[in-house]
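INFO  loader      accepted 1 record
INFO  loader      residues=233
INFO  predictor   begin
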Amino acid sequence: MTLPQFRDAALLERALTHASYANEHPEIAGGHNERLEFLGDAVLDFIAADWLFRNHPELDEGRLTTLRAALVRVQTLADFARAIGLPEHVRLGKGEEESGGRDRANILGDAFEALLGALYLDQGIEAARAFLEPLLAQALPRIMQANLDRDAKSRLQEWAQGTLGVTPRYRLISSEGPDHAKMFTVAVWIGERMAATGRGSSKQQAEQAAAAYVLEHLDDFLQAENEAAGNPT
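INFO  predictor   done
INFO  writer      dumping tokens
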């Protein structure tokens, strides 16, 4: 697959413009892609949910939810971006380029969402659907076969033990609110580093949220680990 064709070339250009590039080139029209990313995130969630619902009537609400989460997570979106040749078209600032931003999953995932949002504005929901659904269809069998829709804590533990030889540890930071509506904040530690925090209406939900955040930002975590070890990437 390749990038979709646009009627409004300015929309495509904005979708491909990272904030770091816009900051270095204030003269460019349209600015960066973060507003389009916001829109594209909503379009992505809707199309993925609708596609799963229509094509998999055998799945219950719980499995539909976990599969949708796996389809729209950052690593999957980065794979989509690479599949359509998006990395070579993203406009990055000099510092972001030199630090390996063109290969960073969160930058690619954000750019893919921005592209989808721009396509929706340019040609409507059916064009966005026609572009996205083949990518979803290609990704889902791999996700189901590898059980990538398992809960975040299990996946983070498998990754941390396999990659770093450590087991994530979770610590309750705070609980706020009345007993009937408490909100818990939990931190997850990987080795000696606090990797993320998460919030939820139970400690278990907060732990899952913290684990999910780390999984969505593995590139950033590994970069921080390398820098702390004196091996900047």
